[in-house]
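Researcher: Here's the sequence for the chain we discussed earlier.
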Amino acid sequence: MNKKVKSFLYNFLGFVVIYLPTLYLVDEFTHLNGLWIPMTAFMVALILAPKFQAIKTHNGEKIYMKWFFIKGVKEIE
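Model: Thanks. This is the structure I predict for it:
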């Protein structure tokens, strides 16, 4: 699998893992209604989800991750 595709899937899975519980929590514990529930969950997940990026280096293509809860940028694999 291509590293760009792999980083895209990591981004998607990281977002979904945070979005779905946040959607449930916002729905249950706030008095928001309508479109505000998914939009609030989206914004929270967008901020808290880790970001993955495939970068070409002189040693080949590598995947790097940046996350709000981890200091700096980490190499994956």
